[in-house]
Specification:
The structure is a single chain. This protein is an alpha/beta fold. The protein has 11 helices and 13 strands. It has helices at about 15-20, 45-50, 65-80, 95-105, 120-135, 140-150, 165-170, 175-185, 205-220, 235-250, 260-270; strands spanning about 5-10, 25, 30, 35-40, 60, 85-90, 110-115, 155-160, 190-195, 195-200, 225-230, 255-260, 275-280. Strands 10-9-8-13-11-12 form a 6-stranded mixed β-sheet, with helices on both faces. It has a 4-stranded parallel β-sheet with strand order 2-1-6-7, with helices on both faces. A 3-stranded antiparallel β-sheet has the order 4-3-5, covered by helices on one side. Helix 3 (about 65-80) packs across helix 4 (about 95-105) and helix 5 (about 120-135) runs antiparallel to helix 6. The longest helix is centred in the middle third of the chain and has 16 residues, at about 120-135.
């Protein structure tokens, strides 16, 4: 059986990795001043932050249409795919997963398994990478889906933002929570619970928040082999510095650096920083 792996652009996987593992991407879009851009295609992440810096109207984001998914699934079937695993950002913050499910139901000539990562960014990408690696190894479809479900047990991600108003205005965090954060002048650590973004802890400074997240990584690193990703909102130098610090503290963890692209960056804002991790495969 030939299994194709699809994800959406919010996984923010490097092009060379996608090409090496044959991971296919359906883009989400961002609208800035009335102009629509498919992220990673029509606009780069650097261009996005340049355009929105300085305030103004918050960009709008939109999910792929069912038709876009249907076209991608047909394309892959025509190229010989017997089954498709379609992995997407959390259904609690986007309708992208639902669109993939609906398109899969229309694709009667190929077995489409849509998977809700219940998270986003490179952590979502970890699922796509694992699925693609297993598909290339010839693992059966059900075994790959079971592995993705198993990954959820150890998947963790924590992030902080410089300005909660982006999340509040975009409807991804309740107004009351955003107001409390603003009044207390804190740097809340956020995470996903039951597919939505909620506060984890309220901490006074960015430095202390990053240390707290690092300590959480350390707790899990003491229990199991991990692969992790530092994810930044257009602050690569800070991400590189954090990578050096974390690598020294946890030399057995496999680290990657990624970024919050246009769609997720719309809701988190410039300066956001995150760290996520998952248990490594035994043979990796």
């Amino acid at each position: 059986m030939k299994i194709a792996v699809v994800t959406d652009s919010t996984a923010y996987l490097p092009k060379d990795l996608r090409e090496r593992l044959d991971i296919h991407v359906v883009p989400l879009a961002v609208t800035i001043d009335g102009q629509d851009y498919d992220e990673e295609i029509d606009i780069t992440t650097n261009e996005f932050y340049d355009k929105v810096r300085g305030g103004g109207e918050l960009p709008k984001t939109s999910q792929p249409s069912v038709g876009q998914f249907a076209a991608k699934f047909k394309e892959l079937h025509d190229k010989g795919a017997d089954a498709i695993i379609s992995i997407h950002l959390s259904s609690g913050i986007s309708g992208t997963f639902t669109g993939a499910v609906q398109a899969g139901e229309l694709a009667t000539d190929v077995d489409v398994r849509a998977f809700d990562s219940e998270i986003s960014c490179y952590m979502q990408g970890f699922y796509a990478i694992r699925a693609a690696e297993m598909a290339k190894e010839g693992e059966p479809l059900d075994a790959i889906m079971a592995e993705l479900d198993e990954m959820k047990k150890t998947m963790r991600a924590y992030f902080m933002v410089d300005d909660l108003s982006h999340l509040q205005r975009g409807g991804r965090l309740s107004g009351a929570q955003a107001l409390i954060g603003g009044l207390l002048q804190v740097k809340p650590i956020l995470h996903f619970v039951d597919k939505v973004i909620v506060p984890f802890e309220k901490i006074r400074t960015r430095k202390k928040a990053m240390k707290r997240i690092a300590d959480l990584l350390g707790e899990d690193a003491a229990k199991m082999p991990l692969e992790a990703a530092i994810i930044h909102g257009n602050c690569p130098e800070e991400a590189d510095k954090w990578l050096a610090e974390l690598s020294a503290l946890y030399p057995d963890v496999q680290f990657n650096i990624s970024y919050f692209g246009p769609v997720i960056g719309t809701h988190l804002g410039e300066g956001a920083m995150g760290l996520g991790w998952v248990k490594r495969r035994a043979d990796s």
